[in-house]
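In this section we walk through a basic example: taking a raw amino acid sequence and producing a predicted 3D structure, encoded as discrete structure tokens. The instruction is simple. Fold the sequence below.
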Amino acid sequence: MQGFLLIFFCVSLFWFGVTQASDSLLSPKGVNYEVAALMSMKIKMRDAFHVLDGWDINSVDPCTWNMVGCSQEGFVISLEMASMGLSGLLSPSIGNLSHLRTMLLQNNQISGPIPAEIGKLPELQTLDLSGNLFDGEIPGSLGSLTRLSYLRLNRNRLSGRIPKPVANLSGLSFLDLSFNNLSGPTPNILAKGYSIAGNRFLCTSSSTQSCMGVAKPVNDTISTKKVSNHHRRIISAIIGVSCTFVVSVMLLVLWVDWHRSRRLLFTSYVKQDYEFAIGHLKRFSFRELQNATRNFSSKNILGQGGFGVVYKGYLPNGTVVAVKRLKDPNFTGEVQFQTEVEMIGLAVHRNLLRLYGFCMTPEERLLIYPFMPNGSVADRLRDIGRDKPSLDWNKRMRVALGAARGLLYLHEQCSPRIIHRDVKAANILLDESFEAVVGDFGLAKLLDCRESHVTTAVRGTIGHIAPEYLSTGQSSEKSDVFGFGILLLELITGLKALNAGNAQLQKGTILDWVRSLYDEKRLEVIVDKDLKGCFNTEELEKTVDVALECTQPNPNQRPKMSQVSRILEGIAGQMAPPVVDDSQGGGSNAAASETRAFSFSRNFSSVEESSFIIEAIELSGPR
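The resulting token sequence is shown next.
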């Protein structure tokens, strides 16, 4: 019996492997067929604007990737990749996304055949491949998509006949096959609405002879009545008067509309400036944000992540903003979304990214923030080609303190409390003075407002996520504390949290690497080489101590952000110009040569348990 079970297990594994694409990949939890399918798509596409950079095999699951939407159970249900400058081919592995409901790839430059494997997606409801360079025939397998209600293949280079299985899809609300190179007779199309215009080789006549190119005989004699010259003059006069009347009405309408638009535009400017001045949230129209971002041009993309894509925008009054277009717009009703946004808008602190306003439509949810000219901490840590790093040691310590203050406000002084759930260098922004501003706070609350503190869709990236959150889906303030500890290590080392590319690190997390060097008392090895030895040894030791306390496996043993903030305040208060010591690769103050002035023996017992009260100077009005 045991032998039989072993054989069955081996055969099952073999069958599973065979059914996957040849370029299947392993996720951190084992084989994930959806990750493999999406990575295969990325490999076969050319990504001129790097919108697929966030598609990373090291992520927890594809639900955290840009342009990918998931169900509450964690299955991929939507790919919204319209107008992203993508080219190359569409991988047949798309057929492995068995729960996919929506696929929007319109207005790119994707070429090659449409994969027949799309017909294996039983839950697909919307398919838009229009405005690409697809060629070859329309796959007849699309006729198997019985739930499909919207199919657009127009403005491509498709040829051949319209497949009868596709024409027989009676559940289609709209079918658009216009402006291709389709040919042959047109079958009876059962869709409620359809367009086949612009296919010059497609025969729409009911006559078989006409479709085959056989001309009908024409009588040499004229068998028709002639229209008299009198009737022609009457008809010409009627047409002329009608055209004059129509043109006059159109000009009058345009003149009225122009004046009304000027009045509305002026009113909009006044209202916008007034609302910004008093710090209230403004509700933007979708058209305003389209104009501000040049119709969400891929050239205006500032970044992307698990929550959506961020675009740079210019408002009519000259304000530069960052427009975050949420990728999961149908999660909640309008009233509830507005309530949640207004609550987040009340969280005002100098180290939190201020919310300017929002936009809601039946299909869209957008948030508008001030533009941060120095980007994110992650951007600045990855700067190349500079004689001096954008973030020197003192700036990095100030960034750590600013981020800690922002998280402290969210955890202990904001009502209701907010858990960030994605603390990392990419979500800490830098203003014009390189002051840390915590971004994306509250988005997890907005997107998971229907869920309790336990969620099935873990958000974030491996290496930043607390172990208890990764294994159970349960997050808390202590999960944010873990992420903050990893942020400290990013600031110190300049490396990414996972597979940082360091020859000494090899594969693994930055946390494991730092822990081993901490035990070996070789902390100078972990300091970012771009700093060229310009750092403070005493501050390094204290900051690593804080990071290791924050990243303890047991969340109950991690400090609160009030305790972390007080420690970093002490470090910041003792900042001194760094002294370079070429012999040891690091610098230190003279007072640090004998003893560490601040040692907490790998615990925070000396720090008060009560919440750290922020002084009034740390609060500020809207940025």
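Looking at the output, two observations stand out. The chain has a mean pLDDT of 75. The longest helix spans residues 229-278. In the next section we compare this with other chains.
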